[in-house]
Each structure stands twice: as structure tokens, then as C-alpha cells.
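Readers of this paper often ask what the protein records in our data store actually look like. The remainder of this section carries one protein's record, kept here as part of the documentation.

:::
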Amino acid sequence: MKRIMKYTAVILATLLVLALLWQFRLVLLLFILSLFVAAGIRPFVNKLMQWGLTNGTAQLLLYALAIGIFLVLFLLAGDLLLQQFNATANQAVIQYEAVHRSWQASDSWTQTLANLLPPPFTSADAQAMELEQMLPVALALTQNIAGGLGSLAVLLALSVYWSTDQSRFERLWFSLLSPRSRAYARDAWRKIEEAVGSYIRSQTAQSILAALFLGVGSYFLGLPAFLLAFLGAVATFIPLFGGLLIALIAFSLGSLQSYGLGIGAAVYTLIIFLGLEMFIEPRLWPRERRGFLLTFLIIVPLLEAFGLWGLLVAPPLSAAIEVLIGQAYQASLNRNTALVKFEDLQTRHETLMQKTAVTETEEISPELRSLTSRLSTLLTQLHETAEA
């Protein structure tokens, strides 16, 4: 009866914890992302600390540098990016309207397809829209942008706070574990931080290179360079199908001028992302196996629960789970190996006791007697620890 009550209490406590985590899921997600960001910049912080800077100063310098570069790029290229986006959107609307009308005028299967597609959005439709219809859309967009910027600010603040007090937090959390489990937990945490940090640095480097190559290639192909560079930089953080998505966008933008240009832009984009995947990522994020299935299984619920934020956190979370599984397996192997070594030590100890046994004609020295007694005590303690 007591065992049933104990299991029931554990199940109810687990459900209560899961319910609380779900209620505060956004805060939990931001905290996890802050840990990922802190893990990504840790090697740079350590390098600056070797040059004489304090931990807090090094972090503030890195965050200020990153935010400064982002603001400079936004001020220099933000206006051009909006102009190219508006021009591309207008061109796409005009092209879609022309294709839709030509398909409707034909007598083949394209006419049926045109009837299934939504009607083109014309300037008359835009003028007919009242301000009351446009205001909720604009308000929702503004709220989403403000919410995203606020979440980003909280993420950076949590990352700075965690990195500054990391040692104190680790001692506090590890003190809740048993002494035997602390070593395994510490090793697992360090490996998780290393894997996640490597992923963050790898994706950031790939994002910069993708933006550079796509921007230069789009400029020479006559496509909106800033727009494709921005979309390519964002697509590198989308797992599994980010490259295919940006290739489809490049094909659509190129097809506004000619189908040949669209195919060429799509092939060029795929070559860039494949090159980054094959040559850059293995050097910055080395892994023996790629857990695509685990990543996909994590993406589905996170995408449904958190949207874009869940999509971004899925790959590093998958890497962390892989490390946990590997550490648990290694701990199991070490435990079995320790048991085998303990039996071997016990056999050797019994042999030693037989050889040093006191007989009627000879005695062992006090030093050897003390060593054998101490060895017996240590083996007894080791046996008690293994059974616990």
C-alpha cells in the first residue's frame, strides 16, 4: 500500500511540474535560448578573459559588439531591403495577375487550375479596403514585432546573467544530487554546453557566409540582392528544409524575369547550402551522427507550441538530448566496469591476506599489517557504495 501511494505521489508531482512548465513555457523557452546563446559565446569570453578582461566586461563587450553590428547593418541596408521587398511584391502581384488571366483564357487544364487558385489582388481591391479592415492587421503586426524585440531583450539579459553567475548556479543545482551522481551530471552538462555552443557558432558562421554568397550572386544575376541575402541568413537557422525553402524563393524571384534565371538561381542557392552543410558545419559542429529523426520529432511539438521560436530551439535541444543519452549509456558501462574491477580487487585482497597470514613461526611487520587493514576498510566502503 505504501509503495502504491509513493508511486501515485510521484506521478501527481510529475504532472504538476509539467503543468507548471506548460503555463510558464515562454519563460522556460527564453531561458533555454539564453543558455544556448551563453554557450555560443563562451569561447570568446574565455579568450578575452585571458587578455585581462573580467567576465562581465568581456560579455558586455561581445553583446555590445553584436548589437552594434546589427544596428549598423539595419541602418545601412534596412531601407534598401524594404525597397526591394516592396518592388518584388509589386512585381509578383503583376506577374501573378498576368499568368492567372492567361490561364483562364486557355482551353487546357490550366484553366481549371486558374479557377482553383485565389483571384489576383489588384490596386482596386487595395483602394476598396477600408481603414477599419486594415487597422487590426497593422496592430497585430506591430504587436508581434514589439513582442519579438522584447523577447530578444529578455533573452540577452538572461544570457548575461546566467554567464556571470554560472559557477554559483552550477554548485547550487549539483548540490541537489547525490555525491556519486555529481560527477556524471557535471560531465554531461559540460558536454551539452560544448555541443550546443558549437551548433550556435556553426549556424552563425553559416548565416554570415550564406548572406554574403547569396547577396553577391543575386547582384550579378540581377535579383534583389539584399532581400535574398537576408532570407538566406535566416534560412540557415531553419533545420532540415531551410536550404530547400530559400531555393524555392530564389526560383520564384528569378522566374519573375525568366524560367531559366529562376532555375539558375535555385541551383546556385542549393550549391551554397550544400557547400555550407558539407564543408563548414563539420568543422565548426563535429558530430559522429546526425540525429535527423530526433530533430524532426522535436520540431513538430515545438513548432506547434512556440511557432518560430520552437523551430529555432529544436536542433540544439536535439543535440543536448543526444549528449544526455550518450552520457547515460557511458555511465551504465562505467558502473558495470566498476563492479567487475571490484570483484577483481576483492579476489586479489583475499590472496594477499592468505600470503600475509600470521603463522606460529613468523609474524608480519606493523607497516604491512596497517596497510592490509586499511585496504580491507577501503574495499568494505567501496562495496557499500556500489550496493547503494
